[in-house]
Amino acid sequence: MPAVSGLLAQKRIALVLLAVVALTLAVTASAANYGQAKVNPLTLAERDLAAETRGDVAAALALYADDAIVQYGGLCSPVCTGKEAIKKELERRVEAKNRFKIIAKFVSGNVAVVQTELQIGYIESSGVDRVVVWNIYEVVGDKIAVATLVGQRTDPQTAQFIKWISSQPK
Description:
The protein has 2 domains: 1-32; 41-166, Nuclear Transport Factor 2, Chain: A. The chain is 43% helix and 29% strand. The chain is built from 5 helices and 6 strands. Strands 2-1-6-5-4-3 form a 6-stranded mixed β-sheet. It starts with a helix and ends with a helix.
């Protein structure tokens, strides 16, 4: 009987190891699975922010789908749909001398979330030197389908800027 119980213990260990290997492979495979995206959404997000920071509207716009949506940023409050509307917002950002510095980044499936410190050319009048913005990118295929910007209101400078910008004449 001891030989049989030893064999059962070995089978159990083998099954546990097999399960661990299968789980590891599944997690590794899903890490590279971007859902509806054909490319890593974080790569597109980083390229978009870099192009905007260097003032390259054409390079940034090329990353967006023809029917893309940008929400809650400048002219796109509440929303811009399509490349022509997005181009106007990108031109506004370049004219405002927006400078993005990535401070955190995350990706899950076809979504990239990038936390940035944003310096805006005219921000000094607001009494702050930067704002914290969460940039959420949804990618379909190899293009940005939706970009959503959210100011981090728990950050004192961002909260002050949002209050200031809301008080400005439209």
